[in-house]
Amino acid sequence: MRKSPLVLGIAGSPRRHGNSEQLLDAAMQGAADAGARVHKLVVTEADIHPCRGCNACSLTGECVIRDGMRDIYPLIDSADAIIVGSPVFFATVPAVLKILYDRMQPYWARTHVLKLPVPARRPGGYVVVRGGGDPYGFVAAQYTTKSIFAVLGIDYLGEVKVESVDSPSDLGRHPEALDEARALGVTVAEEAARRVQTDSDRPSDEAS
Length: 208
Ligand SMILES: Cc1cc2nc3c(=O)[nH]c(=O)nc-3n(C[C@H](O)[C@H](O)[C@H](O)COP(=O)(O)O)c2cc1C
Description:
Elements: E1 6-11, H1 19-33, E2 37-42, H2 57-60, H3 69-78, E3 81-87, H4 95-102, H5 105-113, E4 122-130, H6 139-152, E5 154-163, H7 175-201
Parallel strand pairs: 1-2, 1-3, 3-4, 4-5
Helix pairs in contact: 1-7
Bound molecules: flavin mononucleotide.
């Protein structure tokens, strides 16, 4: 039987149901319409604390901080694809999302320091909004997110960018962006389904 992939959406704004979360919801709807199971993680509601830079994870591959990440790490591990949604805050991602990003350090430690086997690559995408008015655009937020995707072994399949939105009702002026986000969700979910299927078709080590 065909296994339906799990697409994890990460809502990275401190504001609930704002422009980036609406865009993320559209992407998740696209993923669900394409047959994926979907789950949304709202980082601003998670009980997570900043990385301490203690590098304990370079010894064990695990984070020593006991907080909400205990539930989030398994969620990230079980996802077959990840789509992040965020606004631009002072050129990069908001602090709540950066806290989550920095807590990805154990994944970096496992592959780069401890040289543990690299997990199978997964597809992903990014939906990002900004108000405008500063000269730095989307670039820093994009690179920060791409850096995390690299650490998690996620192939960046695409992005949707919307400029000149501030009030949560502003996204309503961009129906084409919602359509693009839905299409990105479909693309990510279909690619995840293809990879999940390929993995389950592959003979196991024991069988080969
Ligand atoms: C603290 C803060 C910093 C911001 N910094 C930027 C910025 O550097 N560049 C920009 O274009 N917009 C900036 N904005 C505007 C937001 O990107 C914009 O309001 C966006 O639509 C908010 O998305 P959300 O509804 O998903 O939270 C900033 C907003 C806040 C509250």
